[in-house]
């Protein structure tokens, strides 16, 4: 690779080594990735704001600390981008919405603060679907920055709602990013952009200072090049937080050196394979062949529940409450996607009895899924049955051709961790992916399986031709 590519597409682990060997510096990384964001990142509508002044200050401090022998850990001196629903001093926090383009908060979200304490350098606020897609958008063009574009095909969508996080990492415009997921918003853009994305257990990462879409479904997590990078970032951002009473009480530590590298037991969930595009299906079967080299595989089925219906009621009811001020003020009329301008109003009349019934069913779902997952280190399944949608096609016309995979609703309802891994390419040269879903609190188990898979494959090292 050229010298610039060696930086642009390096893993967090590799950049940490380069910083300590003197091959580069935190200030050099900031200037390099600022230029990448401004050129390549904007090409894919991945960038809202480049925070160069703040990044230069944080990089200068990191450089001085490292020179003085004070090492905060593997993220020290490495730039990153944050989905623009995280509050950060020094830039607007737009929530991806045109009516809120000038919204400013005077504090950092807990995740931003923890990354700063780990020495990471906040360089950019990254694009997202307006209001994290919570009001029913049906098209890629649903953001104040324009439609997210995957670097693998300029006529295809990057996925949502963490669109900029996926595109920026895939294009070598930033080493890692923070995304959020309520129902697919980390794993799907990771799939469509060919990167590795980790949705942590619900409550593992504080959401203090993050836009709320659905209080009982929202999660924050890392989007990176590798599973190992995801573990490094999760280690920095996870843990209890008094500012978010939903956080889990126990601390989290990523310790890959203590994990197994073989002897795993994995469930295989074949939901969606019959409807999947041929390349998606073939790549999944090939992934199973690789996994069988170091794991025992057993086919499983999900317990019978109306997962999507339950998730939809909870998400719609909670989003109507979360965006009540925007709805009542009429500001939603200024949103980009036509569906988002009126979709919120229907949600305000969801009966309380429907919401409460959904919560009751959800408890049974959590118990049933935990019983299933207790037997395995993780369950392997498709991330999506199709590759990324064309930019000019409504979602109902494209994704409506296949049945929505129930694992997305099921996993988010139960607060389960999941990691999406690139596993090949399909139609129009676009990435395909599989995911590994784990029991509540089992991030290290699914990360260990993911690392073992990536040690035997090179899909995570493939790079789009972005210049």
Topology of helices and strands:
Layout: H1 3-8, H2 12-21, H3 26-43, E1 47-50, H4 52-67, E2 79-83, H5 110-117, E3 121-126, H6 163-170, E4 177-181, H7 187-193, E5 196-199, E6 219-224, H8 227-237, E7 264-269, H9 278-291, E8 295-300, H10 307-322, H11 324-329, H12 338-347, H13 352-373, E9 378-382, H14 395-398, H15 406-413, E10 418-425, E11 431-437, H16 443-456
Parallel strand pairs: 2-3, 2-4, 7-8, 7-9
Antiparallel strand pairs: 1-3, 4-6, 5-6, 5-10, 9-11, 10-11
Helix pairs in contact: 3-4, 6-7, 8-16, 10-13, 10-15
List keywords for this structure.
467 residues, alpha/beta, 11-stranded mixed beta sheet, 11 strands, 13% strand, 16 helices
Biggest beta-sheet profile: 11 strands, mixed
Would you identify the regions where 5 or more consecutive residues have pLDDT less than 50? none
The ordered string of helix (H) and strand (E) elements is: HHHEHEHEHEHEEHEHEHHHHEHHEEH
> Termini, distance in Å?
12 Å
Strand adjacency order, main sheet: 1-3-2-4-6-5-10-11-9-7-8
> What's the assembly state of these chains?
single chain
Count of DSSP H/I helices: 16
- Amount of helix: 25-40%
SSE-based structural type: alpha/beta
* Overall average pLDDT: 97
């Amino acid at each position: 690779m050229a010298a610039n590519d060696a930086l642009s597409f390096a893993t967090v682990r590799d950049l940490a080594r380069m910083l300590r060997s003197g091959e580069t510096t935190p200030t050099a990384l900031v200037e390099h990735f600022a230029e990448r964001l401004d050129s390549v990142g904007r090409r894919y509508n991945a960038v809202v704001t480049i925070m160069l002044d703040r990044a230069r200050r944080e990089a200068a401090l990191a450089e001085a600390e490292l020179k003085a022998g004070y090492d905060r850990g593997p993220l020290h001196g490495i730039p990153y981008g944050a989905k623009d629903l995280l509050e950060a001093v020094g830039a607007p926090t737009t929530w991806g919405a045109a009516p809120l383009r000038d919204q400013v908060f005077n504090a950092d979200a807990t995740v931003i603060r923890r990354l700063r304490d780990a020495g990471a350098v906040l360089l950019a606020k990254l694009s997202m679907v307006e209001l994290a897609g919570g009001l029913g958008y049906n098209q890629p063009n649903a953001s104040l920055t324009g439609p997210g574009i995957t670097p693998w095909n300029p006529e295809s969508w990057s996925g949502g709602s963490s669109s900029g996080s996926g595109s920026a990492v895939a294009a070598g415009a930033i080493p890692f990013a923070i995304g959020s997921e309520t129902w697919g918003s980390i794993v799907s853009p990771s799939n469509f952009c060919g990167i590795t994305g980790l949705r942590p257990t619900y409550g593992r990462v504080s959401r203090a200072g993050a836009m709320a879409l659905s209080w009982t479904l929202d999660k924050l997590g890392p989007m990176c090049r590798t599973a190992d990078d995801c573990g490094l970032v999760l280690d920095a951002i996870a843990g209890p937080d008094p500012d978010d009473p939903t956080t889990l009480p126990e601390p989290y530590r990523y310790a890959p050196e203590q994990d197994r590298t073989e002897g795993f037991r994995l469930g295989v969930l074949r939901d969606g394979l019959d409807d999947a595009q041929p390349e998606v299906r073939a790549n999944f079967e090939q992934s199973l062949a690789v996994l069988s080299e170091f794991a025992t595989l057993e086919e499983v089925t999900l317990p019978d529940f109306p997962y999507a219906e339950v998730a939809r009621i909870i998400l719609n009811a909670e989003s109507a409450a979360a965006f009540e001020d925007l709805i009542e003020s009429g500001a939603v009329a200024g949103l980009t996607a036509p569906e988002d301008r009126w979709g919120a109003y229907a949600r305000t009349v969801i009966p309380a009895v429907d919401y409460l019934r959904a919560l009751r069913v959800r408890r049974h779902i959590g118990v049933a899924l935990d019983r299933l997952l207790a037997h395995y280190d993780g369950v392997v399944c498709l991330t999506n049955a199709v590759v990324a949608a064309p930019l000019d096609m409504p979602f109902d016309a494209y994704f409506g051709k296949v049945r929505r995979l129930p694992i997305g609703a099921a996993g988010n309802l139960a607060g389960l961790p999941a990691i999406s891994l690139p596993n090949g390419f399909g139609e129009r040269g676009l990435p395909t992916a599989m995911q590994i879903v784990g029991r509540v609190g089992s991030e290290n188990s699914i990360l260990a399986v993911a690392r073992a898979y990536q040690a035997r494959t090179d899909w995570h090292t493939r790079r789009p031709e972005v210049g």
